Each structure stands twice: as structure tokens, then as C-alpha cells.
Write a sequence for this structure.
């Protein structure tokens, strides 16, 4: 009986919509595109537009980030810490290190001066996504309350890495929206 109660308690820890969010994210190379689809399906905002609420405070890249991006210690990296929101709902908190030299000047300007999500900005590069890690719950880099964590590298078609991202999906991303938003 105790084992059954423990199992039921653990099942209650996984939000019901989490598997659907995981499937939506897995179907797209861009988290931005996946979250736009998720936002539209959940009627979180009209139009279903994802905004990157950016904190541009620079952070040095750990050696592991530089290794994953295939850059040396002196190669300049860009950094964005963003909360991706649809309407008033923050869906994820993400840290993104990127290689400015592998993007166009216009892309770098847009990233520096706007709240346009990274995935939207670099879409013309036709990038692919290589997931390095995924975890239900919080990775060390994620804030409390994270229900799903991803670490991934985005690559151009020529194989060069353009970005390493750590994505932390919020509990709000998997809650059923109130009737007033549906």
C-alpha cells in the first residue's frame, strides 16, 4: 500500500500537460517556434507571439560552453539571458551563449537591440538542434520552479555551432490557462 501511495504522489508531481510540451519542443529545431505553436494551441495570447524579455548583463562562458561551441578561449561570445513570454505568461527562462562571428551583422544588431527571440533572428540560417541533455525538473543552471530543462547546441548546415542554450521551462508553461484566456 505504501508503494502505491508513493507512486501516486510522484505521478501528481508531473503536470498533466508536460508530455505534450515535450512533444511540441521535440518536433522543432527552434524552441521559439515550438513555444509559438504551444502558445497558439493554448490560446495564451492573440496573436500567439513570443517575446524575449532580455537581461543583457554579460556572463563569462564556462570552458564547457566554449568546448561545445568549438571556440577557443579568446573567441568573442555573445550572451543573452531571456524569459520567453507569450502574452503575460512566461514560458521559459533561457541562457544563450552564441558566436557572433558565425551570425550576420544584422542578426547581431537585432540580438543586441531588440527583444526578438534568438530562434526567430537566426531562422534564415536553417539551423538544427542537437540536444545535449533533457531533464524533467530543474538542472543546476535553472531557477526554482522549473518543470523541464534542456541543454542544446544549435548548428548551421555546415556543422558550425552558433549557440549553446540552457532552457528552463516554467510551471506556468504547462498549467491549463484560465477560461478567460482560452
Amino acid at each position: 500500500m505504501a508503494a502505491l501511495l508513493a507512486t501516486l504522489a510522484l505521478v501528481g508531481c508531473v503536470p498533466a500537460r508536460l508530455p505534450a510540451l515535450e512533444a511540441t519542443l521535440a518536433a522543432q529545431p527552434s524552441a521559439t517556434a515550438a513555444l509559438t505553436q504551444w502558445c497558439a494551441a493554448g490560446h495564451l495570447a492573440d496573436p500567439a507571439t513570443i517575446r524575449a524579455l532580455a537581461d543583457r548583463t554579460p556572463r563569462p562562458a564556462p570552458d564547457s560552453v566554449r568546448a561545445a561551441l568549438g571556440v577557443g578561449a579568446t573567441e568573442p561570445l555573445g550572451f543573452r539571458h531571456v524569459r520567453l513570454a507569450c502574452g503575460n505568461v512566461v514560458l521559459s527562462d533561457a541562457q544563450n551563449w552564441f558566436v557572433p562571428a558565425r551570425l550576420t551583422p544584422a542578426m547581431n544588431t537585432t540580438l543586441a537591440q531588440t527583444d526578438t527571440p534568438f530562434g526567430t533572428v537566426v531562422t534564415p540560417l536553417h539551423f538544427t538542434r542537437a540536444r545535449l541533455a533533457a531533464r524533467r525538473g530543474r538542472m543546476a543552471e535553472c531557477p526554482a520552479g522549473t518543470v523541464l530543462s534542456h541543454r542544446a547546441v544549435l548548428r548551421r548546415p555546415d556543422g558550425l555551432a552558433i549557440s549553446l542554450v540552457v532552457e528552463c521551462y516554467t510551471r506556468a508553461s504547462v498549467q491549463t490557462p484560465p477560461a478567460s484566456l482560452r
